[in-house]
Amino acid sequence: MPARELDVKGLHCPLPILRTRALLDRMEPGEELVVLATDPASVIDFKHFCNTTDNVLLAHETQPDEVHQTVFVYRIRRGG
Predict the structure, then answer these.
(1) Contact, 58 vs 45, CB < 8 A?
(2) Where in the numbering of this chain does the UPF0033 domain appear (predicted)?
(3) What is the CATH number for 37?
(4) Count of C-beta atoms within a 10 Å radius of residue 7
(5) Closest alpha carbon to 79 in 28, 22, 18
(6) Cα–Cα distances in Å, from 59 out to 2, 46, 66, 67?
(7) Rounded to whole angstroms, how far apart are CA atoms 75 and 72?
(8) CA-based Rg of the chain, rounded to a whole angstrom?
(9) pLDDT at residue number 66
(10) Maximum Cα–Cα distance across the chain
(11) Is the backbone peptide bond immediately before 40 cis, with ω within 30 degrees of 0?
């Protein structure tokens, strides 16, 4: 099953985590979610979120977007 994608670019703490949690809560255990964020604080927030829930941070990378911002990409597996 392909991963779902959530674009929270332009949003600042705590909105990226809140929207991620809301979507993960509607997903089945084992499903994967790719989150795209631009908030630099999200690096700490997503690691903490996954460490304090049963969700797993599978990967984290950065990449530039079309307006030369840094986009933080998180791949999370829904725990269960």
Answers:
(1) no
(2) 6-30
(3) 3.30.110.40
(4) 14
(5) 28
(6) 15, 11, 22, 23
(7) 10
(8) 12
(9) 80
(10) 37
(11) no
- pLDDT, position 67: 78
Q: Report angle CA 26, 31, 33 to the nearest 5 degrees.
A: 80
- Domain, as residue range, for 13: 4-77
Q: How far apart, in whole angstroms, are the C-alpha atoms of residue 34 and residue 6?
A: 6
Which pair of structure tokens corresponds to residue 41?
């604080």
Tokens for 60, please give them. 């984290």
| Alpha-carbon span 14 to 45, nearest angstrom | 8
Active site residues: 13
User: Which of the residues in the chain have pLDDT under 70?
Assistant: 1
Domain count, the chain: 1
HEC sequence for 4-59: EEEECCCCCCCHHHHHHHHHHHCCCCCCEEEEEECCCCHHHHHHHHHHCCCCEEEE
